[in-house]
Every structure is written in C-alpha cells, then in structure tokens.
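Annotated sample (chain length 291).
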Amino acid sequence: MQVMSTPQRWFQTFNNVLMILLALICVVPLLHVAAISLSSTEAVMANRVTFFPIDITFNSYLKALENPAFLPAIWISIQRTVLSLVLGLMINCMAAYVLSKGGGRDGIAGYKLFVSLFVVAMLFNGGLIPTYLLVTKIGLYNSVWALVLPGLVNVFYLVLIMNFFKALPKEIEESAFMDGANHWQVFFNMFLPLSLPVLATVGLFMVVNDWNEWFAGSIYMRGDNVPLSTLLKSLIAVPVVDASNVNDIAKINNRSIRAAQVLIGAIPILLIYPVLQKFFTAGIVIGAVKE
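Output written by the structure step:
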C-alpha cells in the first residue's frame, strides 16, 4: 500500500470535505421538500418542519393528484422524454458514425463542410422568434412534436458519441467488412452494442433535460396541454387553491401540495439515475477524449 505524503493527505481531505458539502447541497433541499409534503398543515404553517416530517400524512399527495391537469401533464412529459430519447439517440448515433470516419480518401466527401455546419449550429441558433414561427408554420404548435423535433440533434451529444466510435478498434470494423457486412450491419450489430456506456451517458443527459425543461412547453403548448415541468412552474409561481372547498383548505396547506407535486415530478429521475450511474463515468471520459 502506497503511503501518501502530507500534501497528498491534505488534498485528499479537502476533496472529501468538498464532496460532502456538495452532496449536502443536493440532498438537504430534497429532504426539506419531502418533509414538508408529508407533514401536517399545522406543522407546515408554524414553520416547524425542517428535514423530518411532523405528524405524517399523505393528504398533500392525494390533493396533488386530484388536479385535473396533473396526470395529463405527466403523460405528455413521458411521451416527450421517450420520443426524444429514442429518436435523439438514433439520429445522433447515425451522424456520429458517419463523422467518425473522418475525411480523406477513406472518409466521407465534404467532411470538413459537415463538421463546420455542426460547429456553427452548436455556437449559434436561429433565435426564439424564427423557431416559433417555423414550429407554427409546419403545424406542430400545441403538439408533443413541438417539444421533440427542435432539439433532436445536439452537437455536444454527437461529439461524445463520435469520439467513442473513433476509440473502438478498427480491426472489428475491418473484419466485418471482409465478411461481407455493410455499414448498416456494422452500425447496428457491432457499434451500438459496444457503445452501451456512452449511449447510457447521453441517454441520461437527454432524459434529465427533457423531463426538467419547462420553457418550450410554455411557448409551444397552450391551456392544460403542457408537460409536467411547465405545469409545476406555473403552479409554484402562481399557486391556486380551490376556495370553494373549505374542508380541504383546513386540512391541507398549499405549500404542502406544491412540495408533493415537486417531489412526484422528481421521482422518475431519482429512479433512473442510479440505474445508469455505473455507465456514466466510463461514457463521459471515453467520449470526451479524442485519440
């Protein structure tokens, strides 16, 4: 076992303390929201709730699910996330496979032009108003496709996947071509199965971004036909309580309802992230390094 020097021990201690502080910054607000959502009205209104619920009750969750727009918003978010994940991974992977061949005699024609176009698209975009006019003009307004199609191609994801493809052994591809395989067969049967770490990493980025992004829903969707993140933003910014039901107001504090809604919206990401965590480090490191 290698003995660390004094500077190394100080550096290790500093890293440990820093990681603990960062973990607390992430976990403490979540614990506070969960405690509020599970606490009684009296405890919440008296500001006695910190990190542990007081007088545990699930009334806030029942009231949150009674909102007629809540479950449809969850369904729209699921559609958006699944469609963006499947189509986005496929399109970015196919583009990354082509660009991973490079230019020159054995590469693709116009390689530098395509790379330049992707770089320009990464640095600049058409702007909010032109994008809105385009989405409206082609009939995507107030449909889930307005949330999916504009963001399918992401140059950052494409570069990660492309560099991962470049790091794969050339002998695998060459042996497949010698056996009579074409590019489609190499792509689907060899490159994709070998690229699980980077696909899981990029997929995690996509899921988190599409599930949490609220701005597009506020622009391209109307009424109650909005994703969950947009609905939560509107509920938190402008809380609404049904004043006609006095009993519900007496039993449930509006702050508890908002906390329950936020926690319900965070549950899918909290469940997905640990599953993909083991692929995250390998995918981001290998995909970010160009050999």
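Annotation: Residues 7 and 134 are 58 Å apart (CA to CA).
Annotation: The domain at 66-288 is CATH 1.10.3720.10 (MetI-like fold).
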